[in-house]
Predict the structure.
Amino acid sequence: MQMITADTVPLADNPHGVDVRHLYKTDDVVVTQITLRPGEVVKPHKAPVDAFFYVLEGSPSIEIEGETVAAAAGMLLPSTAGSLHNIRNESDGLVRFLVVKTPNPAA
């Protein structure tokens, strides 16, 4: 059985300059954990594949195609391929969330 913990996965280079860790990758899917410190942002961009965001901790502001939600732990937000989205941590605490993309855009 394979077991993966985020703290053992190396940081990934990314254009947002935030803590990004690719936890699991196949041709079909990539699962990434992102941690945002207060004031950090995943800049607006479009993914070429379907994605969803699952909030693990904190209350990020998630915008998808111009609609913004004050998200909370346990919330899942889907984003279809080509949708413009961004995520902001406007709080004083940490925000952690999973991003699942399918299929893996790098495959």
Observations:
- The mean pLDDT is 97.
